[in-house]
Each structure stands twice: as structure tokens, then as C-alpha cells.
Design goal:
Shape: elongated
Helix content: 25-40%
Number of strands: 9
Distance between the termini: 56 Å
Structural class: alpha+beta
Radius of gyration: 24 Å
Mean pLDDT: 79
Largest sheet: 7 strands, antiparallel
């Protein structure tokens, strides 16, 4: 009644299911010719309208997703052009944070480096690598300071779980508040209201080399198609993120050494 501005005297709601999910819910109110709706005849008409609506929504989603993918891909290529050669830890951290912000509207991003990888899991530890002053694009993407925290003994929080299991984890704000969630405020990124925390391990031949954490806004349920935030179930999102993670893995060496030969850095980047 509050939405329509009228008093509901009769009502008929019909869900339209596609691939096991309700994609459209049609609601009809206050039938004019009769006191109530016919649950068979009227429902059949609404289902027909619902199928047409679902097809239109599907076309809109495909077009929106493809357009967003093209924009993200161009942005990522431009970022790599500016980041190569990647010679410093600050530049690597800045590239990660800038890339996630432009790809998926990330509000915060950090790399957790895994130390003592040659030891058993119970003897490994992590440290945070984070750009503290990314700056605006006009000011130049490479102008950033580096914040590298002290090592945290042991594998703690969601980061520790990602190292041990080599699995991705996604938690919403409400899930992080739950007592059963392994979120550790000392290690893991804080999750704001209406935020989603993504935790992804970077795996090489020796195991987990680092763990990426970033926070995105919750998906806007009122928007049809791609709203810009990262979705773990979206194949194109994972493809783009995979390219960024491959770049990070190729350049993790700059964290432990002061410089890398420019020619070698450029060669690594072209390997993408």
C-alpha cells in the first residue's frame, strides 16, 4: 500500500524462475473487472509477461557485462604500461591498490607477504605491504609511500586460513560480525558497513607467496547487470583479477631486493 499509494483489495504475485533462480517477480493489484484475480488464467498471463521481462533483463545484463569488461581491460592495460618496469615495493603496492580500485571500486587493498615459507605452516608468518598515499591519477600513479608492517607471528585470521587452505574467502560486514568468522582485526582488513572483504591467496610452485585482501561495496541489488564491484562467481571478473595477480607474482621479488634490472622487469611484464 505504501509503495503504490493505494489500498490493496486484491493481489496476485507470480515468480518467474530461470535456471533454478527467481529472476522476476510480477505483482498485480486491484483487478478492475472482477473482485479477485483468477489464480489460473491471470497467473498464466503474468507468467508470459514475466518470461518476456526475464529475456529483456538477460539481454541488458549481457550487454552491461561486456561493456564493463572492455572498460576494465583497457584500464588494466594502461595501468601495466605505466607500472613497467616495476622496481620498488611501493610501486608494486601502489599498482595493486590502483588496479583494484579501477577494476572493482575497491575501497582498501593490502598484500600480506608470507615469510619463512620453507618452514612448516605453524612456523610461518605474514606482514602487510600497503601503499599509504596512492594519490590521484592526475598526480601520477607512482607517487606513493610504502607501509610495511612488522611480521605477525603465526598464521592468523582469514589471511592465515587462506595460506593454510589455498582457498578464496569472501565475507560481508554482517558475516564478519558473527562469532564463527575467523576475522582477526590485527591482521585482516576492517570491513565497513555495506562492505565485502575478499581474501585471495597468490600461489606459486612453492605454495602461497602472498595473500591479497581488498574491500568492495556490497552489490547493488537494484542495478541490472554489472554494477562494478567484484563478484567471485563472475568468470570475467576472475579473468581480470587473475591477470593482475599474475603481474603481482612476477614482481614480488622487488619486495626483497632494492632494484630489478629494467630489461628483466619489462620482459616479465610482456610475459602477461
Amino acid at each position: 500500500d505504501a509503495i503504490s499509494g493505494r489500498v490493496a483489495k486484491s493481489m496476485l504475485c507470480v515468480p518467474v524462475v530461470h535456471k533454478g533462480q527467481v529472476r522476476v517477480l510480477l505483482q498485480a493489484m486491484n483487478k478492475l473487472s472482477e473482485p479477485v484475480f483468477d489464480p489460473e488464467g491471470d497467473a498464466r498471463v503474468l507468467r508470459l509477461l514475466g518470461r518476456v521481462s526475464a529475456e529483456v533483463l538477460q539481454v541488458c545484463e549481457v550487454n552491461s557485462t561486456q561493456s564493463a569488461f572492455t572498460r576494465r581491460k583497457d584500464s588494466l592495460l594502461q595501468l601495466f604500461n605505466e607500472a613497467v618496469p616495476c622496481l620498488t615495493s611501493a610501486q608494486l603496492a601502489h599498482t595493486v591498490e590502483t588496479g583494484l580500485k579501477e577494476l572493482f571500486h575497491s575501497k582498501a587493498a593490502v598484500l600480506h607477504l608470507v615469510h619463512h615459507r620453507e618452514r612448516p605452516l605453524e612456523q610461518q608468518s605474514t606482514a602487510v605491504l600497503q601503499a599509504t598515499n596512492p594519490g590521484a591519477r592526475k598526480a601520477g600513479r607512482r607517487r606513493s609511500m610504502l607501509d610495511q608492517s612488522a611480521q605477525r607471528e603465526g598464521l592468523r585470521g582469514i589471511v592465515g586460513n587462506a595460506v593454510r587452505s589455498m582457498n578464496h574467502f569472501t565475507y560481508s560486514y554482517s558475516q564478519v560480525l558473527a562469532a564463527s568468522t575467523p576475522h582477526d582485526h590485527i591482521v585482516d582488513l576492517a570491513v565497513p558497513l555495506k562492505g565485502v572483504l575478499h581474501t585471495i591467496p597468490l600461489v606459486d610452485t612453492g605454495g602461497v607467496a602472498a595473500v591479497l585482501q581488498f574491500v568492495c561495496p556490497e552489490r547493488e541489488r537494484t542495478i541490472v547487470g554489472d554494477d562494478g564491484t567484484f563478484r567471485p562467481d563472475n568468470m570475467q571478473h576472475n579473468r581480470l583479477l587473475g591477470v593482475l595477480l599474475k603481474f603481482v607474482l612476477k614482481h614480488l621479488g622487488v619486495v626483497t631486493q632494492s632494484t630489478v634490472e629494467p630489461a628483466e622487469a619489462l620482459k616479465q611484464a610482456k610475459g602477461l
